[in-house]
Amino acid sequence: MTAQLARKQMRTVWADTVVESLDTDPRLVVLTADISSWFFWDAKKEHPDRVLNFGIREQAMIDIAGGFALTGMRPVVHTYAPFLIERPFEQIKIGLAHQNVGAVLVSVGASYDDPSWGRTHQAPGDVALLDTLPGWTVHVPGHEDEVAPLLHQAIASDERVYVRLSERANSEAVPVSDGFTVLRRGGAGVVIAVGPVLDEVLAATSTMDVTVLYASTIRPFDHAGLRAAVGAARPDVVLVEPYLRGTSAFEVSEALADVPHRLRTFGTWRDREARVYGTAEEHDRLFGLDAAGLAESITGFLG
What we know:
The protein is of the alpha/beta class. The chain has two domains: about 10-165, Thiamin diphosphate (ThDP)-binding fold, Pyr/PP domains (Rossmann fold), CATH 3.40.50.970; about 180-300, Rossmann fold (3-Layer(aba) Sandwich). The protein is built from twelve helices and twelve strands. The protein is globular and about 60 Å long. It starts with 9 loop residues before the first helix and ends with a helix. Residues about 1-5 have low confidence and may be disordered.
């Protein structure tokens, strides 16, 4: 995953976009839990009733977001992924999903962007956890230029939307779409890259005769796009996601329910924890998500 040099980080683009939207959308209300609250200090002076910081009270923050949504407001809620999805999951389940109201949940930290903080700041299971609830749209941008259009789309709707930001990004943006974008075509199989793993996938498959699909929106899953790609290639599918391995395996199986196929998934471990610190790049190598590890594994799978 390519480091961002002399470029805005996704979180900065998110904050800039939300601040601009506060001036134009009277429905919008921003809720933070200390993390990134400094981006909104000036905006709070202009919109004191619509920029709220709750400290480390994430459960209350989600329930209050649900209350705002019930009154017709559009809440944008933000903190580190484990504090946004895992810690207040019951409130997400009841205060948002069961009440059938929407919000835009925007996380930072991804699976292990900054391992020096330890396991408390890592959330590789966030998307899998949201999959237990109905009606969520999940965006996983792979470049800072993909953030604003996805966020504008999310704010304009009334749906439940999760935007999973990362501190790392691909070298180039891919135009935002609702499903898969075909980046390469080949006949030996289909490789799906989600969000910020794209650079490593492209490097790993550079000499392979495979179709490469990219998604910055992974829920809803683009069943039709995958079926079309498999119809033009051997029905061997490789799924590379920047979170828990196999999170979208069910969706692949549903898309190809009547198509005999093989599936190989890549992501963070399911059967054990990485009880180490180090750097994000070292974690990539540990999980086999670096270009060299992916190339070896994908080659072995495709034969």
